[in-house]
Structure formats: structure tokens, C-alpha cells
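Side project, low priority. Logging it here so it doesn't get lost.
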Amino acid sequence: MSVSVSPASSRAASVDPWNWPDVARLPHTSRLRTVAAERLVRHTLGRLPLRVRFGGGEPIGLGGPLMEVHDLQAFIRRIGAAGPIGLGESYMAGEWEARDLVRVLTVLAEHEATLFPAPLRRRRGTWTPRRQAGHRRGPERSGDNVRRHCARSSELSALFLDETLSYSSALFRGFPAERNLLPAAQHRKIDRLLDLAQVGSGTQLLEIGTGWGELAIRAGQRGARVLTVTLSREQQALAQRRVREAGLEGRVTVLLREYGKVLGRYDAIVSVETIETVAEERRPEYFMMLDRLLVPGGRIALQTITMPHERLPEARTAFAWIQKYIPSAALPPSAEAIEQLVHGCTGLRVAACDGFGPHYAETLRLWRQRFTQRAAGVTALGLDETFHRMWTFYLARTEAGFRAGHLDVGQLLLTKDQMAA
């Protein structure tokens, strides 16, 4: 939604306007819209299991985690102009805080369907920007800090990931999870996926999406012959180095290649959280490619983030904060949508599917805590305070999505009949 802008609030004054134009400046809204937005926000927040304090006054709400709004007018103007996007940008600007950010965002997520009266929900398109056709990665210019994050992703990842460099959900033995157990939990997730695909000595394995190489190394240590493909030169270089250090150069090959250009036939195929990055209209092609590359009797093990099927229609069109500020963000499928695609487009079948969303919530909690502890490392990478607040909000918001049930993660087993051509 295009809006004119006015000078920043006092708290956003230190935000770099070149890197963060929509955070550094407040959107212009009419007085009538601002007054209406304030009434709506006060009414809405007052009905939730939250405590919301505006400018140091008495909290409103029904009790729960405390949300401190320091700059009420800026907060209201951003929400009045851009809804949920404005909420995130207001946090990036430092206009509101929460000691327990995840609990606040979880409450908002859990009550999303009833945050506004029915007539206003039907008019949501008048205040929530819509996703433009063909839009995949946010605006053309979402800030130099975001681009620097993309260019130095291994250094940023090293600030909050464990030594396996696994940027996906771990699988814990129990909760609450502890950071020192995260590497073992990541290996447990990987081993479970490899077990699903029956990867062992002599298996010809294809991995789609190398990440930083941990799964390929783990499979190579089982005696498999692994081809893993990535679109990132940085990931390829680091994964190749790690493969060499593990003494697996003869078993693991890391290629810079699009999945659609992979040749050959494989006994097993594995992929961790890559389906979400495939544009929805290309997912039939993706599953047909898996079918083409798998030998008869072969097995495919996929780990993917999913969302409830009933949320897909709105998610397809809404332009959310995460699409604007996180370059890798994409639309997760639903488990039902995956099954429909597999059944309708391939000779594969879904043989098993389970979810373990609470484990992703715990993984994200550990990442966020580590990221917060290593704030000095963010600065050393040339990333500013606004980036730090953006990444913290991203990790907290995603964790809240899993805790509220808006997101899930699971491992799927796809099989191919022995008699398939």
C-alpha cells in the first residue's frame, strides 16, 4: 500500500533512513484513520490475555505478558497504515518492547482470527498490503543491511547456530531443551530422516539443498555415495571444506546446480526444508522431478514446514512483514496440499507423515537466546541495531507461530512402486 511519509518518531530518529526507509519514517495517515485505529487497537488489546501499557500509564488487558508501548502515536500510525507489517516495523523502530516477546506474539497469533470485528475483517484488504503478482522475496530495496545478511549468511548463522550449522528444526528427547544438547538433537533429526530413506552402505543418495553440509557428511559416514546440490556458492565452498575435513571427498560431491538440472537415478532422495522455498506454482514440477530421479522401489524423505490447509488462501495473497524483511521467506505448503500434489502429479505415494512443531519452537528459542547473547558479533559484521531488532523479531515471531499452531514441521516418506517404469 502506497502512503506518504512524515518524519520519524523520536525513537526511530537514529534508524538509518537509507537502509530502513519504512522504519526511519512514519507513514502519513489521516487524523480520522488514526483516531479510528487508536480506538480499535485499545479495544482489541484490552480484550486479550495481555497487559499493555501505553507510555508508562496503567496497563490494559486481561492479564498476561507485558507489552510496553513507548511511543503510542507512532505505534498507532504504523498499525493504522499497514496493520501487522506496521507492528513489526514499530518494534524495529524501538517504539514498543516486551520482556517476553514470544509470549506476547503468541497471544496475538492465537487470537488473530478474533482481533477485529467481522465487518473489519472482511475489509482487511483496505489496510493490509496485498502480495503483488510474482512477488517472492520482498521489495526491490529492503535495505542494505538485509543484503549484507544474504552476502555473509555463514558468518551470521555462526552467531546463533550450533556447531553442526543446521538451519532447520532439531528433534529433542524432551523439553525444555538445553543448548548443549542442540547438536545431538540436530543429529537425531538427520538420522531419523536418513533412516526413513533407508540410507546405508552403498546407497546412491541425492540431497536437494546442501545447507552447510551436515546431512551429506552424516550420510557419507554411513557409507552412502552422496550427491548434494545447492544454489549458493558460499554454501558449496563451506560444505566442500567440511567434507574434506571429514575425509569424505570420495563419497560426497557438492555441486552448484539447480534441482531441475540434476541427472541420473537415485536409490534415495532427502531434502530438509526446501519445499517452502519453491514457488507454489512450481511445486508440481518439483514433485515430478523427484519422481523422475528416484529408482523404482526407492524412498524419499522430506522435512518441511507446513501450515494449516485452511490458512493457505489468505496466506497466498497477504503481503506480510516476513516477506518484506526476510529474503528467504516463502509460503509453506499444507500437508494436504503436498498429498494432493504427490497423488495428482506423480507415481509416488505418501507412506508416512508426522509433525513435531513444538521441537521447532524450542529450536528457535535456543537460536534467539544465543543471538541475543552475541549481540557484539552482529555489530562486528557491520549490521546495525535495527537489523538486530529485525532478526530478533523474526526469530520470536516464527517461534510464536509454532507455539500458536499456525506452523508445523514434519518428516514425510514418499515411496515408489517396484514395478514403476
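Brief comment: Residues 135 and 197 are 34 Å apart (CA to CA).
Revisit when time allows.
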